[in-house]
């Protein structure tokens, strides 16, 4: 059984662009760097050669990883889920955050639930596989969710929900 990798259309496009860059820009450049380093003579003490070979290994590994993820991608367009009343993949959720004693800890936040490869808290995206993401799935506006975080227990109230 193949395990699907959920992602948004934007996430799929970013992975495809990275794969294209690795195949058509980074890989050829690294091959050229290896050839240039070989021309410098003794390979056993050639740091440029070893660095280029190490970079080539990283690039080849990343290409295989991206090809695998893209082959297993389950692209979910959040706009197709518009009108749902429950949190699902691709939802943009407005949350109020407080501690377990009811004290508001910070300003309200907005997060979008995305696949693990797209998650970036600084950009307001969290993975559906993250503790908060898992806790939010299937919930509705008005629900409160208590999640144990590294900084302590947090209570999240869903203020609004949209699929954009």
Give the gist of this structure:
The protein is an alpha/beta fold and 164 residues long. It contains three helices and seven strands; from the N terminus they run βααββββαββ.
Helix-strand string: EHHEEEEHEE
Count of DSSP strands: 7
Q: Distance between the terminal alpha carbons, to the nearest Å? A: 31 Å
Main β-sheet: number of strands, strand sense, barrel status? 5 strands, mixed
Rg is 22 Å
Overall spatial form? elongated
Number of helices: 3
Keywords:
alpha/beta, 37% helix, elongated, single chain, two-stranded parallel sheet, Helix Hairpins, 24% strand, five-stranded mixed β-sheet, Chitinase A, domain 3, 3 helices
Q: Describe it for me?
A:
The chain has helices spanning 9-38, 47-71, 131-136, and strands spanning 5-7, 73-75, 92-99, 109-114, 125-127, 144-149, 152-162. The chain is an alpha/beta fold and 164 residues long. It has 2 domains: 5-75, Transcription elongation factor, GreA/GreB, N-terminal domain (Helix Hairpins, Orthogonal Bundle); 78-162, Transcription elongation factor, GreA/GreB, C-terminal domain (Chitinase A, domain 3, Roll), CATH 3.10.50.30. Strands 5-4-3-7-6 form a 5-stranded mixed sheet. Strands 1-2 form a two-stranded parallel ribbon. Helix 1 runs antiparallel to helix 2 (47-71). 18% of the residues are buried. The model has no long low-confidence stretch (mean pLDDT 90).
